[in-house]
Structure formats: C-alpha cells, structure tokens
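Hey, I'm writing a tutorial for new members on how sequence and structure tokens pair up, and I'd like a real worked example in the thread rather than a made-up one. If someone can provide the structure for the chain below, I'll link this post from the tutorial.
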Amino acid sequence: MPFFDFNHMELRDFRPGVKSAAHFGEQMTLAVMSIDEGQADSGHGHPFEQCGVVLAGSFLLTIGEETRTLGPGQGYFVPAGVPHGWSSEKGPVKILDLSARFPALA
C-alpha cells in the first residue's frame, strides 16, 4: 500500500494502552501509534535507527542522556544501539514512527 491517510488509518491493539497500524517493507517499517495517557516505556534499545514525528498530543522522550517533551510537528532520531524510553503523562499522543530493518540473515 503506497499511500496513507494518517487521519483515517485503522489502528489496532498493539499492547495495553497503545494502538498502531504498521506497514513493513524490506528495509524499513512505518507505524502510526496512538498512545493513551499514563502509558510508558522505561527504556529499551535495538540495533537499528528509528525516527518519528508527533502528529497530535505530547509525550516525554528520553534518548540516551537527553529528555525532552515533544508536541505536534516535533520529531526525534534514535541512533542504533542508543537506549530510549517515553511516557505519555499529559494525555494521549499520536506519532508517526519509522525504523530501519535489517534484512534477514541467510
């Protein structure tokens, strides 16, 4: 599916308090996520790059040692291997998230 309408994507339960719609290519993943107020990820890392932009609402994002509150139109870039985490303390947030994918090893 090469075209998207971010205002009308059908989001499905991803985990408690988080809904998403994702499209997987051979080398990248595009996901729209809706995160309810009060949700958090205390931190994780992965061997691929990730970036995104806030579509609605705001959330607190920590990348490495730096923490910021991001709102609509603001974005982020997470280098490969850098720990990062987030929380949605001030209400729901909707984000567009892109991540690189490694091809399957032969």
